[in-house]
Amino acid sequence: MNKEQFLNQLNASLTRLSLEERQDILQDYEEYFAIGMEQGKTDQEISTSLGSPKQIAKELLASYHLGQVEQTTSAGNVMRAVWAVIGLGFFNLVIVLGPFIALVGVVIAGWASAIAFILAPVFALLNLIVSSFQLFDLFFALGLCGIGIFMAMGMFVATRALTKGFIRYLKFNASLVKGGLKND
Amino acid sequence: MNVQFKKGVLELCVLVLLEKQDRYGYELVQRISDRIEISEGSVYPLLRRLTKEEYFTTYLQESTEGPPRKYYKLTDKGREYLHELLTEWNEFSDGVNQLIKEGVCANE
Hints:
The structure holds two protein chains of two kinds. By secondary structure, chain A is mainly alpha-helical. In chain A, about 85% of the residues lie in helices and about 0% in strands. Chain B is α+β, with helices and mostly antiparallel strands. Chain B has helices at about 5-20, 25-35, 45-50, 75-105; strands spanning about 25, 55-60, 70-75.
């Protein structure tokens, strides 16, 4: 493993830590590589003697978590953990699934009525075969068809906008759950 | 050697090395690994932890070659802790040595 690979793997294993702290840690190891290479070692040798970056990350994370629990038994911290645990199950079920079902319902209803309106003349003509045909019905159906086409166009735009909006809401929700009541 | 055991000893080694003078990370690692076999990467997590516990303070100092180096300086709190650990260690190693001596004598 060369220097880049070592530092990348370490960085990737430390995403739980704040950016500042991570940079600080990476800087320590960069310094270590720099001095070692000045002394004539290759970066392969140095990374071998340092050991596995995953193991190092484990040690760093363990002391970080212990520190968190020790320092802050604050309500915010506890809430954050509770949110994180419940959040991914129950919270998402209600807060995400609820609006999702409602939105899907609206979209399906909109499309269904648009399509029904568009097909209205077809039904009017079917009426011709089945039972008494009235010209008024046909004109009315043609009118509905026009409205239906407009509705379909509207629904097309609305569906796209709603999908986009919902994805944003999902992202917001994910960060809310993950970050919880982060106040640092 | 047992990992947990080594970790405790490593802490003592770092504190002892910093008692007389401030040193930078690389120097600390090299001094220790010259004498005992360690995984060198685990010294930095230890340094961070002890710094957080206020046993050390750190400062950056330019070096004539390469990047600036982070030096570790023992605080009063750290010195106190060192003396505690040292007493513990001496009692411990005396005890173990005594047992070994008796064991070896009995076998002969």
